[in-house]
Specification:
about 240 residues; 9-stranded mixed β-sheet; 3-stranded mixed β-sheet
C-alpha cells in the first residue's frame, strides 16, 4: 500500500516487528487487494518485510469463500466483490478500521489455527484497552460483546470480524473492527450467515466508549507484541 501522506510506524524497537502503515484517506477495495497481493509476493521473494496496514475502505460488500447467495439481502448500489478470504459476506466502509495482516509463517510457525487464535487474542486485548470485553464464540466467527444487560438475556453483538488467506504460508486479508460506522449498512447482508435475533452488530460508538479510530490504532500497536508476537514469534527463515 502506498499513497501520499501515509504514516509508517514501528510497533516497538524490536527489529523483527512488521512494518506498520496507516492510510490517510478512504481506499478503494480492488486496488488495495492488488497492492496486498503484490506485497505478499515481495515478502515471499525476500524483497519486503512483513506488514500491517490500517485503513478504511470506500463502501463495498465482499463475499468470502463460505458466502451463500441468500445471505446477500439488499446490496443496493454498492459493489459486491467475491474475494478469496475465509468467511461470509461483510461490509466495509467509513467508520470501520480494516487491518490487513501480512505475516510470514515460514519465519514464525506454520499453524493456521494458532494464527487465528493469535489474531483473536490481539483484537480482544486491543478492545480491552478501550474498556470493551469482547471474545470469540464457539461456532461464530469474529469477536462478540455480551449485551444481555441492556438488550435482554442471551443477546450478543459482533464488534470485529476475521477473514484470512494464506499464500505459501504468508497471510493476507485480516480483520475489521467497528469504530463508528453506520450500523444499518449491515442490514444489506446476513452477518456471519446467522439469522437469529439474539445476535447483532455493534461498534465502539454504539457501546458508548468515546474511543476514536486513533485510539483503536494505538491500542492495536500497544498489544501486538504480547499477543501475536508472543504466540507467533519470528525467527530465522
Amino acid at each position: 500500500m502506498s499513497s501520499p501522506g501515509e504514516r509508517h510506524t514501528a510497533v516497538s524497537a524490536d527489529v523483527t516487528a512488521p512494518e506498520w502503515s496507516t492510510a490517510p484517506a478512504l481506499r478503494p477495495y480492488g486496488p488495495t487487494l492488488r497492492d496486498m497481493e503484490r506485497r505478499v509476493e515481495a515478502i515471499l521473494a525476500g524483497r519486503a518485510d512483513e506488514a500491517i496496514w490500517l485503513l478504511e475502505h470506500e463502501p463495498v460488500l465482499t463475499a468470502g469463500t463460505s458466502a451463500e447467495p441468500a445471505e446477500l439481502r439488499d446490496p443496493g448500489d454498492l459493489p459486491v466483490l467475491r474475494v478469496g478470504r475465509g468467511g461470509r459476506y461483510t461490509w466495509h466502509g467509513p467508520g470501520q478500521r480494516v487491518v490487513y495482516v501480512m505475516l510470514d509463517l515460514n519465519r514464525r510457525r506454520r499453524d493456521v489455527r494458532l494464527l487465528v487464535r493469535a489474531l483473536e487474542a490481539w483484537i480482544a486485548a486491543a478492545l480491552g484497552e478501550l474498556g470493551v470485553d469482547a471474545a470469540p464464540r464457539e461456532g461464530r466467527v469474529g469477536l462478540w460483546v455480551d449485551r444481555s444487560a441492556d438488550k435482554g438475556p442471551g443477546r450478543e453483538d459482533k464488534i470485529a470480524a476475521l477473514g484470512i488467506r494464506l499464500r505459501r504460508w504468508v497471510s493476507y486479508h485480516g480483520l475489521s473492527v467497528n469504530v463508528a460506522p453506520d450500523l444499518t449498512e449491515f442490514e444489506r447482508i446476513l452477518p456471519c450467515g446467522i439469522d437469529d435475533p439474539r445476535y447483532g452488530v455493534t461498534s465502539l460508538a454504539d457501546l458508548g466508549t468515546g474511543a476514536s479510530m486513533a485510539d483503536l490504532d494505538a491500542a492495536l500497536e500497544a498489544t501486538f507484541s504480547r499477543t501475536v508476537g508472543r504466540l507467533l514469534p519470528r525467527g530465522p527463515r
